[in-house]
Amino acid sequence: MKIALLISALLFLAATLLLLSGLLDQHRRARQVAQRLDGKPLSDHRVSHWLQALGDSRIGQRSVKLDNETQMLLNRLGWRSARQRSLFAACQIGIPVLALVLSLLIQSVFFPQVTNYWITPAFATALGYLLPKRLLAAAAHRRQRQLAIEISTLIPLLRILFESGMAVEQSLRVLSIEGKQLLPALTHELRLILTRVDSGLELGEELNKATQLLAVDEFTDTCVILQQLIHQGGGAMKSLLGLKLLLDDRRLTRLQEYISKMSAKMSVVMMLFLFPALLIVLAGPSFTALARAFGR
Q1: What's the pLDDT tens digit per position in 146-163?
Q2: Higher model confidence: residue 198 or residue 284?
Q3: CA distance 156 to 171
Q4: Are 134 and 169 within 8 A, CB to CB?
């Protein structure tokens, strides 16, 4: 009975995969036709086509659009294009399905006598659904820390360019081109801002929108000073210098907190590993002498 149930489950899974493959292939051909009509180059990578088609489906787009936190994390990570959001939507749908299939196969092969048959698949599906979002949150938090570190390097470069006579937009354009290796995350954001400025939008408003999307305090303070420089035309050099000193003090305070926490953790490690060894070395001979005395 269990073997027949397993065979029927595998056949149902194979039919579902064939149907999904046909739908994805049809969607891929329609997208290729649209790309040919638009004059865009075509990519020959089938896996990326399938992932993008799965992400572009109605379920994939709804899984991303209904969750405001996911959209916020994607913006903080810098994934703002339709292709990147489609790839994440494909992962959001595909990983739970893959976890469900693997858990069913492993349980049916290695643990066929389990009474509660659907507990492990349900737990695997829930874990597969939560895993992409947690990884996305960790990546977004890591990029925010990278942006905060790069701001300390951006401010002296801006002061040098301002002192050479450049305006705000010219300085940002120079940094977006010349600072790709030194400031990779910030130059990416600056290129996006300047692209929207080239389309006719105002630089101050785009800087304000970027601060709301990224939610990095250091970047927000810098953009406030840049907006002041745009509207007033001067008087922001001292503000940049003060902000640089403030950021250095914050970084020093964070390093001191990290060192203090590390020293506390090291004391716990010493108590766990060094104290037993020290106790054996110092109190070992006395314990052995007492054991011998009681033995006699």
Answers
A1: 999 899 889 889 888 888
A2: 198
A3: 12
A4: no
Residue 8 structure tokens: 């029927």
Distances (CA, A) of 249 to 143, 222, 223, 244: 21, 16, 19, 9
* pTM assigned to the model: 0.69
Q: Is residue 122 within 8 Å of residue 104, measured between CB atoms?
A: no
Q: Which residue type is seen at 290?
A: L
Which tokens hold the place of 47? 């896996």
Tokens matching residue 138: 């960790």
pLDDT at 61: 62
Joined tokens for residue 152: 């300390």
Task: Please tell me the chain's helix, strand, coil percentages from 3-state DSSP, rounded to the nearest 5.
Answer: 85, 0, 15
Helix H segments across 39-118? 46-56, 58-65, 68-77, 82-110
What are the C-alpha distances in Å from 212 to residues 72, 97, 110, 153, 223? 10, 34, 51, 21, 11
Separation of alpha carbons 165 and 7, rounded Å: 75
